[in-house]
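thread from #wetlab-drylab

HS: before we spend reagent money on co-crystallization trials with EPZ, can we at least see a predicted complex? here's what I'd submit
DV: go for it
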Amino acid sequence: MEQYIMKGGNPLVGEVYISGAKNAALGILAASIMTDEDVVIDNLPDVRDINVLLEAIAEIGASVERIDRHTVKINASGIKEVSVDDEFIRKIRASYYFIGALLGKYKSAEVPLPGGCNIGSRPIDQHLKGFRALGAKVEIVKGSVVAHAIDLVGSHIYLDVVSVGATINIMMAAALAEGQTILENVAKEPHVVDVANFLNSMGANIKGAGTDVIRIRGVSRLHGTEYSVIPDQIEAGTFMCAAAATRGDVMVRNVIPKHLEAISAKLAEIGCEVIEFDDAVRVVGKPRQRSTNIKTLPYPGFPTDMQPQMAVTLALAEGTSMVTESIFENRFKYVDELARMGGNIKVEGNVAVIDGVPGFTGAQVEAPDLRAGAALVIAGLAAEGYTVVDEIGYIQRGYESFEEKLQSLGAMIEKVDSDREARKFQLRVG
Ligand code: EPZ
């Protein structure tokens, strides 16, 4: 099983280029099947979740042509199936976007319920509430969502929970419904706005994405388009925390600074120097960084997907920090792993109380999920000695060329898949 092995202690210094946003690209790829014309999407991140979704799109009959590593041309005129194969669903959660896309275009969809993720139960009741409000009959049959509609008719929908997935999924179905849909209490994440902009580039009529109310006027069809995915705010934030935790100096390039404001503000609060440019942010870590408190919230609040990475940074700050995870109920699984490196964090319900320590020592740890895995790599790069991170498949789901980008910043890290390779790394770096 592949692992990351690293020797910590080097401050990360230099510049790193951020890839396209995974969570925008997943919605955009699903929406691309809503037209029978060519759709070209670039700045796709080359990560496992994207590649699995592309396989699923090909599997139902669309043509998927890789133009280059980050660009794909999709033509969905050949789709024969509105039933998506179970094999793909289990691999990624965002396959639920097929329901909104297929229901919108074909008025019919059959998609296995996505696997529960290990950061919480992650129900999709709000998605189904929206589809039903648009006039679809939605049932759960043998573990699959089966949705059909004679017609989809616009409706006034108020989400009970601010949900990125439900906002995007209902927006897709409503784009081809008759009449106006008003969607309230919606998610405002940059990736929600990106999917709305993508749909509008296909001829949809969506207004208000990024605010609390989205108004959608259904159109009869969508046409082809060419579109570039926004940069990934969470990948960018991950490298910003890596710079802070290793007391480095990193220019994070190809970002939209506004999307990073909550992260920049918190790093500045603990004493980092954070300098914003048009499409870059520079983070300079300081030898003594202060504690602070974090509460994860829907955008523009502090992102839940940055909670583990920030917690690791706070675990190396002076003083006691409180991190409240208000979005998911099980997103502190990295705490036990970090304890093996000397981290001092106590979890009480959805609050982690972090007592900063002067430093970590390397250990063998296991990635429990995507963002916690990235956080453990950050901890290993800041630690004294060697760290091995297992289960790095989670990390590869959401970070393109993770170890290469870190190596370009001076990190001593390698991907290995045997003890022998790990020993060679240790001999080489000494
Ligand atoms: C998206 O997940 C992201 N995934 C997650 O990123 C991210 O953590 C999350 O949004 C929040 O920002 C993708 O975009 C593929 P939600 P999603 O629906 O859409 C509850 C990563 O690391 N809820 O906004 O599944 C839910 O239980 C991943 O890249 C309902 O109760 O998240 C959670 O408590 C991890 N009913 C809260 O809402 C529903 O129908 C937010 O979930 C839907 C959600």
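DV: The chain has a mean pLDDT of 96.
HS: ok that's useful, forwarding to the group
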